[in-house]
## 1
Amino acid sequence: MPANINYAVAPGEHLEEWIESSATSLSTVASALGCTEIWVRALIRGAVPLTEPVAVRLEHLTGTPAYIWMRFEHGYQDDLSRLRIDRPTTENLTNANL
């Protein structure tokens, strides 16, 4: 019998692990994705969805195929729905609280 999983893992958490293991700066990631560091932090937190164009850019940056990044996002969305919780908001996002 499968265990009841009562959490959702944002795709950005996988990105955060990659950032840490590769010692890549947030500014480098933001530049590669064409966004701000605050947006990257929101992605890590799960507050913004990972889109296909971003997944392609992540593939170029990390070497992880875009379809894997999209699986992470779809799994996250499914888990949020199953758990009946909303995606975290971007309200009050700053460098200090992310």
Note: The helical segments are 11-22, 26-33, 37-45, 52-62, 66-83.
## 2
Amino acid sequence: MNSKLKSLIGLCRKSGNLLCGATAVENAIKFRKCHLVLIAEDAGESIRRKIEGLCISSGINYKILFNKEWLGSAAGLDGKAVIAVKSKDFADGILKLF
């Protein structure tokens, strides 16, 4: 699952359907511009609580997985605590891996 998930996240970023960082993800959730949020297990407690709460209140799927280093690596960036998938097709593909 790890390699398939990493590949999908990478493709998602290359296609312009990935948002990285707490502020960008928070805005995407508020304006319903994303279909899936991935949160690193080692994300800060306040960020994690805030993003989870927004996802729940907005009805957006979210998953907590791995760590910031892994999530950043999958996105082709330095460690990232949260990323959001804008494309429904990519979000569905990622969710099928769980």
Note: Residues 12 and 90 are 7 Å apart (CA to CA).
## 3
Amino acid sequence: MPKTVFDRPEADDGVIASGLLGDDTLLLGAVSYSWPGATYSHEGWKANSYILRSEDGGNTWEEPTPVNVKPLTWGYPFGRILEFDDGLLLLSGYGGY
């Protein structure tokens, strides 16, 4: 049965990146975007990116961790989260100013 793991109030959300680490930790990259103006206008539009972590195969999830996308003002994580042999993680995405 599907389970909601990311849902911010007053915003549209999406989980659009994922990765499985060598220790079986599951990571998800998510975005939450909102605007105070008319629906789908750019007036007041903002997007915040997050990483979600589960260490039990997706049964439970830690609180979402914000992703610093500076120098961009907004960013969308996208695709696969990669883990290198030295433990470094790579999260791809796109964004703007």
Note: The chain has a mean pLDDT of 90.
## 4
Amino acid sequence: MISFIDAMYVPYIAAFLFVFAVIFGVLNYAKTLGFSRNVNGALAAVIAFFATAYEPFVFGMQEYMPIIAGLFIIIFFIMFLKKVMRNESGPQLKFVM
């Protein structure tokens, strides 16, 4: 079987991509530092590289990634429903969160 990525490197690549996506999303959403998207991407890549270089972090991410992904899916659907349920003509519908 031909494989492009060796199975030994998959946890490292997954941890890098996860940390990069979270840091990049937070930096773009919060805009606390006021940098452009290119600088935010470079900063997220550096942070993700250093996080991936720490081996216990990679194995912890490998262990808890299904739980974290499930939580992100639940949060995504809550935010999606909140946006869909917004009433344009009247006051906004109130949710507990």
Note: Helices lie at 10-30, 37-53, 55-84.
